[in-house]
Amino acid sequence: MTNSIQILDTPVILTTGIYDLLKDHIRRKKLSKTNEAALDAQLKKARQVLRKDLPTDVVTVDTLVTVKDLETGDTQEYKFVGPDSAKKKNGTVSILSPMGIAMIGYPVGAVVEWEFNAEIKKNQIIGVTPI
């Protein structure tokens, strides 16, 4: 049986730089087949904007994001930064981490399905703050 992820009707909103970074990540085969297909589908519907035109409630680099696991009800915060800036000791996470790729481009309130450790999880973005 093949896992599949339901893609939201709402297109992701990305800066051109992040869009290109994600396309390159797909080319490098860094994702599971399920997540690669989901990300490819998201990018086909993505809306690209200039950094200054990116809404402040959309997940991108340099944002503090609060995520709720809809199965357990647990919440967790992630400080998403660029891949070269991520440092565990600073509490920052690469935007190319599994959670970063799952959330990037979605606004507060979005429910996102993504494969983590061969299991499809549903998470809701409940807060986005620029850092």
TrEMBL record:
Coiled coil: none annotated. It holds the Pfam family GreA_GreB. SUPFAM superfamilies: FKBP-like. The keyword Phosphoprotein does not apply. GO terms for biological process: DNA-templated transcription elongation; regulation of DNA-templated transcription elongation. Signal peptide: none annotated. It comes from the Bacteria. Transmembrane segments: none annotated. Keywords: Kinase, Transferase. One of its GO terms (molecular function) is DNA binding. Residues 55-129 form the Transcription elongation factor GreA/GreB C-terminal domain. This is Regulator of nucleoside diphosphate kinase. It comes from Pedobacter africanus.
